[in-house]
From TrEMBL:
The keyword DNA-binding applies. Keywords: DNA-binding, Transcription, Transcription regulation. The lineage of its organism: Bacteria, Bacillati, Bacillota, Clostridia, Eubacteriales. InterPro entries: HTH_HxlR. This is Winged helix-turn-helix transcriptional regulator. The keyword Glycoprotein does not apply. Residues 5-113 form the HTH hxlR-type domain. Transmembrane segments: none annotated.
Length: 115
């Protein structure tokens, strides 16, 4: 395998860049983590779980993740309205990455290691 040359590289054409474009944002990873942990979550439950997020920001983040086919929004025709969110199969494919991040964080936090 040859040595990569940065002069010939283009970050925009990498899988890393594409993945980052889907999960980039202050709360997107937190929302995905929440859905990974709890599977099906209602809007207000998620707002309480992520207490630093505003209702508007949560709504925008959820719409973006839904547009990228990472989460599924299920609306039930009832009064009061009931909406639930869950990971799609595409979203579930991020679980190994989220698990690895959790494991790394636990190891570094618990052992106070510097990596």
């Amino acid at each position: 395998m040859g040595i990569a040359c940065i002069a010939d590289a283009d970050l925009e054409k990498t899988g890393f860049s594409y993945t980052l474009s889907l999960i980039n944002g202050k709360y997107k990873m937190v929302i995905l983590y929440c859905l990974m942990e709890f599977e099906v979550v209602r809007f207000n439950e998620m707002k309480k779980y992520i207490n630093t997020i505003s209702y508007k920001t949560l709504s925008v983040m959820l719409k973006g993740l839904e547009a990228d086919h990472l989460i599924h929004r299920e609306e039930y025709p009832q009064i009061p309205p009931k909406v639930e969110y869950s990971l799609t199969e595409r979203g579930k494919s991020l679980i190994p990455i989220l698990d690895s991040m959790c494991e790394w964080g636990d190891n570094v936090r618990c052992c106070n290691k510097k990596i």
